[in-house]
Amino acid sequence: RTEIVNNTTRNLCEKKTRLHFGGGECAGVQIIGSGRARVFITSPGGGDITLFRLLDGDVSILSAACMLNGMDIELDMEMEKDCEIYTIPKKVYRKLYDESGAVKDYTMEMISEKFSDIMWLFNQFVFSNVASRIAGALLEHRAIEGGDELKITHEDIAKDAGTAREVVTRILKQFQSDGLVKLTRGKITIIDAKKLGKI
Predict the structure, then answer these.
(1) Do the Cβ atoms of 164 and 49 come closer than 8 Å?
(2) Which part of the chain is CATH 1.10.10.10?
(3) How confident is residue 94, by pLDDT bands cut at 50, 70 and 90?
(4) CB of 22 within 8 A of CB of 61?
(5) Which keywords does this chain's UniProt record carry (predicted)?
């Protein structure tokens, strides 16, 4: 424990900061002390597709996965709020991983959980329509914010739903006509979360 405390570094990342992971590099395991970050991949066309989010106390699956030999994932992370990030060096964490069954079990459980989330997401892309994905993105933001007023843009939703901003705008207008949401500049207010969940 002393070794972890003595070697862990603390960094402050401002909102909108982007970090890239992969390409054979592995700085260590990162923990979100405070803030919120979006983990995403970039499509060949240049668009972002959100995979999952990291909240207070979450351990980055990206940095944990690089502890495993032969496992290289290229992903990006964008800070949605100012973030405080703690990094445990690879050498220190690897020693704990090799010597402690509890640390190894926790690491594998964490990796398995996030990959299950990613597989669920890809199933949504394959089997769900765009309107359903947009509704799901709205409900995810509602859960994160803890309320019905969401200070997000159509572009934010497009990244989460893996579609074009114009498509999001068109479908949100339809949601508004159906009495599910209310649209104002820079804000989306959810009116009927129950019906959104059934789309």
Answers:
(1) no
(2) 130-196
(3) confident
(4) no
(5) DNA-binding, Transcription, Transcription regulation
